[in-house]
Amino acid sequence: xxxxxxxxxxxxxxxxxxxxxxxxxxxxxxxxxxxxxxxxxxxxxxxxxxxxxxxxxxxxxxxxxxxxxxxxxxxxxxxxxxxxxxxxxxxxxxxxxxxxxxxxxxxxxxxxxxxxxxxxxxxxxxxxxxxxxxxxxxxxxxxxxxxxxxxxxxxxxxxxxxxxxxxxxxxxxxxxxxxxxxxxxxxxxxxxxxxxxxxxxxxxxxxxxxxxxxxxxxxxxxxxxxxxxxxxxxxxxxxxxxxxxxxxxxxxxxxxxxxxxxxxxxxxxxxxxxxxxxxxxxxxxxxxxxxxxxxxxxxxxxxxxxxxxxxxxxxxxxxxxxxxxxxxxxxxxxxxxxxxxxxxxxxxxxxxxxxxxxxxxxxxxxxxxxxxxxxxxxxxxxxxxxxxxxxxxxxxxxxxxxxxxxxxxxxxxxxxxx
Length: 418
Description:
Blueprint: H1 2-15, E1 19-24, E2 30-33, H2 35-41, H3 45-51, H4 55-59, H5 63-73, E3 79-87, E4 93-103, E5 106-113, H6 115-137, E6 141-146, E7 151-155, H7 157-161, E8 167-169, H8 173-177, H9 186-197, E9 203-209, E10 215-227, E11 230-240, H10 242-252, H11 262-276, E12 282-289, H12 292-299, H13 301-318, E13 324-327, E14 332-337, H14 343-358, E15 372-379, H15 386-402, E16 407-410
Parallel strand pairs: 15-16
Antiparallel strand pairs: 1-2, 1-5, 3-4, 4-5, 6-7, 6-11, 7-8, 9-10, 10-11, 12-14, 12-15, 13-14
Helix pairs in contact: 6-10, 12-13, 13-14
C-alpha cells in the first residue's frame, strides 16, 4: 500500500513536471530519481549510477554538500533550499530549485525547473547594461533648466518626438498645458520641479506621450548647480526606459495569469510585514484549487490553463489594488490582505471568494462548478514572518481540505489540527 501511494505521488509529480530524488545522507549518493528529473537532465538511471555518485556532480555546486553536512551536525534543522545548475547529457544547462528534507537518513529533494525565470533575470541584467551603453553612446534628451527664470533648454532628436522645443519659457506650466505627461504622473513632475528649486537632487520615473500619442516610461536624472548657495540650474537628461520596465514586469509576474510570481510575491509580503511591524491587522490567504489534477487529466492542459486564468482574474478582481495577489504553484495562489482590522470584513471577503470561484466552471460544457479550499492566518497575531505566516495559513488550508473542500478556515493556534 505504501509503495502504491509513493508511485501515485511520483505520477503526480511527473504530470506536474516536478523533479524528485532521494539522496543517502551519509554517502550523499543518489538513491532514486523520478521520471521527470531524468527527463529534465536527459540521463537514464544507469547513467546516473555510472557517472554520478554524488548529487553535486550533477548540480554543479558543492553548496549541496556543505548544507547536507551542516544538517547532520545540527539535528534540529532538517530542511534546506538552494538554487543550482544542472548539465544535461547534451551539455546544455538548466537551472533548478532544490528543496531538501532529511527524513530517516534520506534527503527527499523536490526539484523545480527555474531556467525561464533565471534567463529572464539574465535578460533583465543584460538589458540594463545595454541601456547604459546606449545612454553613453547615443543622444538622449539633455536639458538645462534655469530655476530663477523658468526657461528650459532641450537638445536631442528625441526631444522633438515629445514636443519639447529647444527653448521653453514658462517652465513647468507650459509642459503641463501641452499634456505631454499622463495626468496620473503630473504630481510627480510638479514635485520634481519643487525639489529642483529647493536644491534637492533626485531622479523620477514618469510616463509621457509623444506627438503620435504613444505612451512610454522615462527616467529624469538631474544635478543642481548653485550660485552663491542659491540653486540656479538643474542639468540633466531624459531617458526612455520602456524596455527596462517591460523586462522588470516580466521578471516579477507569472506568464500565464499575469499575477505576481512566487519569488516576487514572497518578497513583497516579507517587505510589507517588515514595514508594518506590529501595527495593524493583515491576513494571508493560501488558496488551492480542488481536484485540479482531475481537470487537467480529463479536459487537457489547455483547458486547465483557461481555468487558472479565470480563477486568477476572479481573485484579482475581488481584492483591493493595495493587496498582494500571486500565483505560487501550479494550482496554488496567495493573497496578502493589508490593514483589515475588523474580523467581519475578513469573514465576508473569505465567503465572497469561495462563492465567486464556485460560480465558475471546471468543464467545457459549463456544468461542473469549480471550488477552492482556503486557509487564512493573521499577522502579527499568528506570526510576524512570511514563512511562519505561510505555514499557519497552509495548516488552515488542509483543515479546509479535510473537512470536505469548497470552504475556508481561519487559523487558530488553540484548536487542534483535524
